[in-house]
Write a structure and sequence with these properties.
Blueprint (H helix, E strand, L loop, with lengths): L2 E3 L15 E7 L7 E7 L4 H11 L10 E3 L4 E2 L2 H7 L10 E3 L5 H9 L13 H11 L2 E6 L22 H6 L3 H5 L1 H17 L4 H10 L3 E6 L5 H4 L7 E3 L2 E8 L2 H6 L3 E2 L16 E5 L19 H11 L7 E6 L10 E4 L2 E4 L13 E4 L15 E4 L3 H12 L10
Parallel strand pairs: 2-6, 7-8, 7-13, 8-9, 13-16, 16-17
Antiparallel strand pairs: 1-2, 2-3, 4-5, 4-6, 10-11, 10-12, 14-15
Length: about 400
């Protein structure tokens, strides 16, 4: 991971011009595993890295040792350097040296039980994922329906992203509450009761421990309210599609005047607390705000969350970022990230997540997709369910939290 220095920023928080230097973490000969920063002039070149390392470390001998990209064990060539440092932002780059004076000392320390903080050639996917998460100062957590599977909840989707329940497509519409209010509430009321009676699985607790290591934010498309039940701080959560635990009026005019309110019992047809119309869940339906359904979704519950999230995103420029993507599936409307043009971008533009050139850890038991060549080891895909993956990561990371972590 590297930081840009002396980089002017625009009001939106992005770099307005190329920085003069790049500060690159590099692991050298000390057995403590400490990372040292080297200052490399822009544009970054292989020779520039060697010269900067030579100034920083007396032990470094550029004719004998070549820099390696630590996530892949790949030899650092001129072409690789160009690809790694061609953009402006945060990149998942940590360098180590192939040979240096004192390497035998580090090898002996490892044999004695010391575990280097840098993933080395031959490291397992789990170890590489743990390293990416351990080294970041900022953690963006993107969560889809797959997170709830281990709690016994349905994703409503097949592996190809299509819906597995036709009634879900029909009843997850605002218009269904106008066409047959009783049928709509039978289905949505049962869903609400299922969510109320289903506790978050143990993986949520492990994820919260992991998040507290860094400056984090959780963005989720899930409407089950599980993150709040699991103890996640509300100011660090963006429930992008709303929550079934909040209700709103079916009348757009009433919604413009009043915010959503906490859901009540569903023994009878829920009515609006502000007018004589019926209530509906405060979740984004397929036909909300489309055509004749203008302003049918009441955004007053999620607007403060969205504002906090976007302010947080604006602070990411020049910081050591890692993305943790959990159970996002493959739908074009999901939070799943894809690697294009030397950076990660969200498959759906509705989330307003900027491009990020950084490490990404994906937790999803589905088949690994083909990633565009050039991601340079910035992706680790653990083919596990959320609970198993988070529990294993917790063990690998030791379960500790940083002293300066966000509460």
């Amino acid at each position: 991971m590297f930081r840009l220095t002396n980089s002017p920023r625009s009001a939106g928080g992005t770099c307005a011009a190329m920085a003069k230097t790049v500060r690159i973490p590099m692991s050298m000969s000390d057995s403590s595993g400490t990372q040292h920063m080297i200052e490399v002039p822009q544009p970054v070149t292989l020779q520039g890295i060697k010269e900067a390392a030579g100034k920083k470390f007396k032990d470094f001998r550029p004719k004998k040792g070549l820099a390696y990209h630590s996530f892949t064990g790949e030899e650092l060539t001129e072409d690789l350097v160009t690809s790694l440092f061609s953009g402006v932002g945060t990149a998942g780059v940590v360098l180590c040296m192939k040979t240096w004076k004192g390497a035998a000392k580090l090898k002996a320390s490892a044999a004695a039980g010391y575990r280097s903080p840098l993933p080395c050639e031959g490291a397992s996917q789990l170890q590489r994922a743990a390293m990416m998460l351990q080294e970041c100062e900022v953690l963006l957590v993107l969560v889809g329906a797959g997170m709830g599977v281990d709690s016994g909840l349905s994703t409503f989707r097949a592996k190809d992203g299509s819906y597995t329940k036709e009634e879900y497509m029909d009843l997850a519409r605002h218009q269904s509450f106008r066409e047959d209010i009783e049928k709509a509430w039978r289905w949505h009321g049962a869903m609400l009761e299922t969510f109320r009676q289903t506790p978050p699985h143990a993986g949520y607790g492990k994820l919260l421990e992991l998040c507290r290591r860094a400056d984090f934010f959780v963005c989720t498309s899930n409407i089950d309210g599980a993150f709040l039940r699991a103890g996640f701080p509300p100011e660090r959560l963006f429930e992008a599609h709303g929550s079934v635990h909040m209700w709103q009026c079916c009348d757009p005019k009433c919604n413009r005047a009043h915010p959503p309110w906490p859901a009540q019992a569903t023994m009878e047809l829920p009515q609006c607390r502000h007018c004589e119309d019926y209530a509906r869940p405060n979740v984004a339906f397929f036909d909300d705000d489309l055509g004749s359904n203008a302003r049918t979704f009441n955004p007053k519950y999620i607007e403060p969350q969205r504002a906090r999230f976007h302010r947080w995103l604006a602070s990411l420029a020049g910081r050591q970022v890692c993305v943790l993507e959990i159970g996002c599936g493959s739908s074009e409307h999901s939070l799943r990230m894809r690697w294009t043009e030397n950076s990660w971008c969200c498959m759906s533009g509705e989330w307003k997540i900027p491009r990020l050139a950084c490490p990404l850890v994906r937790l999803d038991p589905g088949e690994a997709e083909e990633v565009e060549e050039g991601h340079l080891g910035n992706l680790v895909h653990l083919l596990l369910g959320a609970r198993d993956a988070l529990e294993q990561l917790s063990v690998e990371l030791g379960g500790a939290t940083r002293a300066d972590a966000v509460e």
